[in-house]
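MODEL INPUT / OUTPUT PAIR
PAIR INDEX: 1
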Amino acid sequence: MALEEAVESGMDFDSIVEETLPGRTAAQLERKYDELRQVKQRREPKGTPKKKKQKLQEDGPESLAWAARTHLELIGTEGGAPELAEALYGAATRHEERSGKGDLHCFCRLPEFPEVPCVSTDGDAAELLFCDACAGWVHPRCIRLETMPGDDDDYICPLCAYSRGDGVPLATVATRNGKVLWKRALDDTTTLETCEKCLNEWEALEIDDGLVYAGLAKNFLETIVGEAKAFAERAAPFLVKKDALSPAELRGLAELVCEGQTLELVDGTLLDSLRDALRCAALAAREVSPENA
């Protein structure tokens, strides 16, 4: 079938290409589509009015001003609505992934391939390590594993090692003042109260022109604030001194410690308290002493 006949018949471009060019490379496809567009243009009657391009929505002056102030307040540098939305996107995305229906791994409870890993630059961000005892998967970075086991070596995760009487790996997970594992966009001094103040300002000013990036940034910030509050509520029971933790409670505490490292907004004192609680639990294993934990 000639190209002119195919175009006139109303066939879509993909069907025409499939029929006239079954074996094709990327370059051949591009040339064929260009040819089809040229044929279609030749067959359009002269004087056909061109379709008007729709005007893209834009943020208004009030939301842009809010975004600039918020960027300076939370990030610590000057920036606008696009920069603020981009800075907060990773944290909001990780929250959605953690709250979704997909398979989650490790104690940090993230997918195997997070859309925005946002980890430190060294090593493979998506690497997972298989535990031969519980058949679970962990990120070497989350459990602070310095040396990877060989391909033929068995590996036991920190919780399984603890259940066998070795609390050292679990105590290592609870290390304080160690290597920074997850990069954050927010300034180190940014607190939950500061973020809430920025959101309250949006509401107080009744901003309604955040149609693009400013609106996205505001929604991302709401997600991050809600996540931080929920994390603090889940952490509270573990800060009450107990004689011993059940296996389920111990796993929950390890997950909180690893998850806290991935959060964009987390109280550093709270996270350290959780680490201390996990370390104390690790000391209960008979093979760990305070000197080597």
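PAIR INDEX: 2
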Amino acid sequence: PPPRLPTCHCTLPGGEGTCTGECGRDYASGEVASHELFLYGRFETRMYPNIYHNGTLATFFLYKNESDKIAGENWAEIDFEVHGGGAHPFAPIQTNLITGTPEERMLAEEFFPAPEIPKAVQGTYVRGRFHIFTIEWTPAYIAWFIDGFQIRRETACPAWGKPPNSKCNPQVNALNEPMNLRASHWPLEPHPAVSPWAEYWAGIFDDTSKAALPAGPYYDWIRTYTYDNETSSFVFHWQEDFDGPGVNRKRWEVAKHTYSLNHAQFNASNVFITEPGHLALVLSERGDTHKPKKAVEKKLPDEIVEIPTDEDDKTRPGKGGPSKKKKGPKKTKLPGKPGKTGKGASAADIAAEMVEGYAQAATNGETTRQ
């Protein structure tokens, strides 16, 4: 039988608005959100996703508070996600822009492999190691990087509109309001009435996913830069090293909510600071909260070299700010590179369109943006 339909009240019925109350969730997980709002900047984290099963997501993203659940509000979101499973085994990194309104949103999802890493080890490499995820958000462009490699860049359109045959993206222009910075770990609601496209996206959270719990990502640090419009450059702002006995509540709000697509309830009891200074967001069955062990990365094949360490990263404080040329993984000696990954399907609001789009993505490996 299909999983039972969750029972809770969402302020956006049938949508992705925040749900109030306990909502009958059988699982709990964690999310932190910055109190500070940002209008443009550079945002980085050194994250070990540590998720390997269908229906699980580890995230780092910018979001305009309440924008997904107030009728007529401008929804604003810039996402970096790693999927634990699903229909993109050789491209487990997802980037996304969300604009529009709760009633008529626009998504621009694209899936990527880790650059210069063979297909056969993408899952272990991306999910089983620490990586530096970077978002650059400016009035002129939005770009995503992993370990110094730019994997995607969207440019703004001219003020008068999108020229014919232009590759500019009007969503960049629309993302012009302050957002806060968030990190989260959550399981996708498996009920087909809520997420009928789950199989074609992050996968269906099932008994195998459940058996792997408790588990979740580790964040070594989070770093922010402001954006100087006059010089079109980034200025170091602050770095969170998660080296205190608990989460710094002056900087971070620890979430206590859920939403329609989330199969878990965000709880403070699932947010930990572990040795030697990592933020851990643990997905578990409700009531089964145990402090996670120290992060241990997966062993890579001998021919795959290590990714850059924090000591290699010349963009950290004390090294003169962002470098013009960012360091990424050293080239491997293995022949070939990952196969070309096309644009990921955009989830439409109508379930039938979502199923069709993701099914096409799973079949052909690429779809068009909606």
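PAIR 2 NOTE: Residues 9-16, 308-370 have pLDDT under 50 and may be disordered.
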